[in-house]
Specification:
Blueprint (H helix, E strand, L loop, with lengths): L4 E2 L3 E2 L6 E5 L2 E10 L5 E7 L6 E8 L4 E11 L2 E6 L4 E7 L1
Antiparallel strand pairs: 1-9, 2-9, 3-8, 4-7, 4-9, 5-6, 5-8
Length: about 100
């Protein structure tokens, strides 16, 4: 049985973001945790930069957490995440 790999906690990447992995993968899920009084957004790209195809734009409600099931979306270039605040943590699971 194959398990998922995880990005680990990603927070406050700035506008340029961070590359999670290069190469073709399947995106399984994105988890978000928000500890502010406003909804916050993270963006996941099928790329190694903060441009190109957006495969997920997650909005996590104020003082909440969410799991976004991505159903094994095929990403051909890689995964790149942009989280513009220290108040939002995400983890990305992929195989």
């Amino acid at each position: 049985m194959v398990g998922c790999r995880s990005s680990g906690v990603i927070t406050n990447t700035g506008v340029s973001g961070t590359t999670i992995i290069s190469g073709q993968i399947k995106l399984i899920s994105v988890h978000g945790a928000n500890d502010t009084n406003a909804a916050l957004t993270a963006t996941i790209y099928d790329n190694t930069t903060n441009s190109g195809t957006i495969v997920a734009r997650i909005v996590v409600p104020a003082n909440g957490s969410m799991e976004f099931d991505m159903h094994g979306v095929l990403c051909k270039i890689g995964l790149h995440a942009v989280v513009n605040t220290p108040d939002l943590d995400i983890t990305v699971e992929y195989i």
